[in-house]
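Predict the holo structure. Ligand: zinc ion.
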Amino acid sequence: MTDGPRLSGTRAGGLRVAPLVHLAWRKAAVDLVVEETADAHTLVLDVAGWPGSVAGQHVDVRLTAPDGYQATRSYSLASGPGEPPALTVQEVPGGEVSPYLVRDIAVGETVELRGPIGGYFVWTGARRPLLLVGGGSGLAPLRAMWRAADPAEPVVVVASVTEPARLLYAVELAERVAAGNVSATVHLSRADVPDDAERLGTPLQALSLRTGRVASTTVTQALTACGGTEADPGVFVCGPTTFVEAMIHLLAGAGLDPRSIRAERFG
Amino acid sequence: MNHYVDGNAVLGAFSLALGTDLSEGSLECAGCGSSHAIAQTRVYLRCPGMVLRCPECGGVEVVIVEIDHRLNVTLSGVLALRVAPPRASPTR
Ligand SMILES: Cc1cc2nc3c(=O)[nH]c(=O)nc-3n(C[C@H](O)[C@H](O)[C@H](O)COP(=O)(O)OP(=O)(O)OC[C@H]3O[C@@H](n4cnc5c(N)ncnc54)[C@H](O)[C@@H]3O)c2cc1C
Ligand SMILES: [Zn+2]
C-alpha cells in the first residue's frame, strides 16, 4: 500500500499515505429498495466490511454487461454515518446506468462499488449551523448531512423540484421540521403550490412551498435563519450543474464568499 | 453544453492511479498559480478520458485516460500536487 509514487505531504512527520483498500471494487448486494418517488429509488446495500462514511461522500458504481462492456457512475451516499450504505438514484431517461438501477435491479442482486470517496464536500457534524441547498436528486448527500447534524444547531434546507410528487424524502423532511431543528423551503419550478385541502394529511402540509425557481428572497431568508454570515454556517449546494451555478450566484449575492460554498455538481 | 462536474467525481480513479488517497488533495495550477482542492476543479467526463480544469483560469491541469484497465495520468498543467488539505482558501 505504501509503494505508490513519492508525493509531497505537508504534515509534520512527513508523507501521510492513506491506504486505498476502500477503492478496490467490491460486491454490493441490494438489501432493500425504497420507492422515494415514481422515478427515484433508494437502494440500501450490504457491503462486506463497509467502513462507514462521512456525510457528503459518494461511491462509484460499476456495471458490467454480458459482453464485458463496463460503465461507471458516481452516486452520493444518502445514508447517515454509521448506517448501511444507501444510494438514491433518480432515473435519467435514456441513460446507461440510472434506468437499470431504478427499474431493473432487484433485492438480492449485486453491483460493484468502490468507496466511500471524498474529503471536500463533507460535513463532519461540527457545531455550526447548516445551510443545505439541493436540486432534484441533489438532496441525496444532503440527507446524509442533516442526519449527521448537531441536533442543537439549526439546519436550513432549500430544495428545488419540478413538482411536489418529485420531492425526495418528503416524509423525513416533514418529521424533522415537526421535531424543530430543521426548516425546509421547497420551490416548485414547474407547478403551482397545491391548495391547503390538497396538502392536508400529507407531508407537504409541514413544508413551506413556493412556486417558481429558487429566488434571492428565499436564499436571503435561509441565510438569516442560519444566523447570517457571522454564524459561519456550513453551506452545501448539490444538484444539476446549471442549478448549482445559479445557487452559488444567489448565495454570493446574499453576502456569502463563494469560496466558502461547498458544491457537488451531478452533471 | 457545459456539463462539467467537480473533481470530487474522479477522486476514486485519480487516487488509484497515483496510489494514494487524494480526497483532501490540492493542486497548484501551472497556468495561473492558484491553489485549490482537487475537488474544486472542473471535470469534463464526456470526453475521451477525464479532463480536470483549473476553477480559476480554466486551464487543463490533469488528464486521466483508462486504456485496457491501465490508468494513464498526465499532469502537464500542474505545478504542485499536495496530498494534505490546502492551507488557505484559493486565491484569484
Ligand atoms: C459526485 C457525483 C454524485 C452523484 N450522485 C448522484 C445521486 O446521488 N443520485 C443520482 O441520481 N445521480 C447522481 N449523480 C449523477 C450520476 O452519476 C449519473 O450521471 C446519472 O445517474 C446519469 O447516468 P446515466 O448512465 O443514467 O446517464 P448517461 O448515459 O451518463 O447520460 C444520458 C444523458 O443524460 C445526460 N445526463 C447525464 N447525467 C445527468 C444528470 N445527472 N442529470 C441530467 N442529465 C444527465 C447526459 O448528458 C446524456 O445526454 C452524481 C454524479 C456525481 C458526479
Ligand atoms: Zn489556473
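Chain A has a mean pLDDT of 92. The pocket of zinc ion (ligand 2) is lined by residues B 29, 31-32, 34, 54, 56-57, 59 (CB under 6 Å).
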